[in-house]
Amino acid sequence: MIIVMNPKCSEREVKAVENELTKQGLGVNLSQGSTFCIIGVVGETRIIDPDKILSFDGVDKILKVEEPFKKANRLFKPEDTIVNVDGTLVGGNHLGIMAGPCSVESEEQIIEIAKSIKESGANFLRGGAFKPRTSPYSFQGLELEGLKLLKVAKKETGLPIVTEIMSTKYIDEFVNNVDVIQVGARNMQNFDLLKELGKTNKPILLKRGLSATIEEWLMSAEYIMAGGNENIILCERGIRTYETYTRNTLDLSAIPVIKKLSHLPVIVDPSHATGYWYLVEPLAKAAIAAGADGLMIEVHNNPQCALSDGQQSLKPALFDKVMKKVKVLAEIEGKTL
User: How far from chain centre, in Å, is Cα 89?
Assistant: First the structure.
């Protein structure tokens, strides 16, 4: 439920409505701008007497929210959410470019790549320490040692690090050492993990599940937000369809749909969406043109010898060329790095 206040209402009038709602055991989410003031109500809203709420000074009208996601809903918060990662912004007019290898393989590798992507304009270093793989015999990542190497690369470059969490048992380790905690496609509906991440204040990168609908994706974000953590970046990484030529099918339409339904920033991962390095550039450009708030691109200094996903990784020189084109498109779209 949404309670629309008069834009000129006083702080006292807003507080009176909030007190009435909290007295009934309901959650309250205030969103106030220069031209609007909205109180989002979370909980068992059927107990609310609309006539009573409308009798409060400053209340203009009451709207029902049909979608099951509440805090992630743009009706609750009309303005875009901008996620601040230690001074690096994602959302609004700010593009987040997350680049790096699929897997952290060595100190030399991760530092070399981190330095090159920073030169090209990336503002986040991504790298897998824990790797979910379809086969139990595939390389699973360096795990905690990989986290240490990411920290070394951050110290060398200053780039905030993004890496994927696999289990609730590592949450403290990630909170202490990682700047953006990634929830992978396979864990999008790991509700125990989402609930625990909701108790942290760390930015969360939430990837869309392999066959998840947009509503299911936003409901996973709602799990995190319901716990109190509203620093969420959504990531479209392709969905499973009948098409087998590419690794997945990139759903570019999800970008404007998310923008309509939610205030959360959404970035695109063209590497996992396509599975081939030569498709990354055209879909990266298309994503920016469609309004994405950033990109996640796999970059490797020696893709032929990569321990995972070498076929979809760009070499640093090609990433640099892609970034030059992305910057031009970003300027057209009114966004900056």
Answer: 12
H or E segment and range at residue 214? helix 214-226
Give me the mean pLDDT over the 178-190 stretch. Answer: 97
Enter the DSSP assignment of 305.
G
Instruction: Count CB neighbours of 56 within 10 A.
Output: 15
Q: What is the mean pLDDT of residues 52-66?
A: 93
29-33 own/partner pairs: CB under 8 Å, 24+ apart: 29/70, 29/71, 29/76, 29/77, 31/76, 31/77, 31/78, 31/79, 33/78, 33/79
Average pLDDT, whole number, for the chain?
Answer: 95
The answer to whether 65 and 2 are in contact (CB under 8 A) is yes
- Average pLDDT over every residue of 74-80: 93
How many Cα atoms sit within 13 Å of 331 on the Cβ side? 5
Identity of the residue numbered 106: S
Q: Which two tokens stand for residue 165?
A: 């969490």
Q: Are 223 and 42 in contact (CB under 8 A)?
A: no
Closest by Cα among 187, 188, 248, 242 to 214: 188
Element (H, E) at 14: helix 11-23
Query: Which amino acid appears at position 90 of this protein?
Result: V
296: left (phi over 0), alpha (psi -120 to 50) or beta: beta
Residue 139, pLDDT score = 76
Task: Judge whether 275 and 102 are in contact, CB under 8 Å.
Answer: no
In angstroms, the Cα distances linking 194 to 191, 197, 212 are: 5, 5, 16
Angle at 33 between CA 32 and CA 39, to 5 degrees: 25
3-class SS letters over 153-179: HHHHHCCCEEEEECCHHHHHHHHHHCC
Q: Which helix (H) or strand (E) segment is 235 a member of?
A: strand 232-236
**pLDDT score of 317:** 98
Q: Which two tokens stand for residue 247?
A: 């690794």
Angle at 211 between CA 252 and CA 287, to 5 degrees: 15
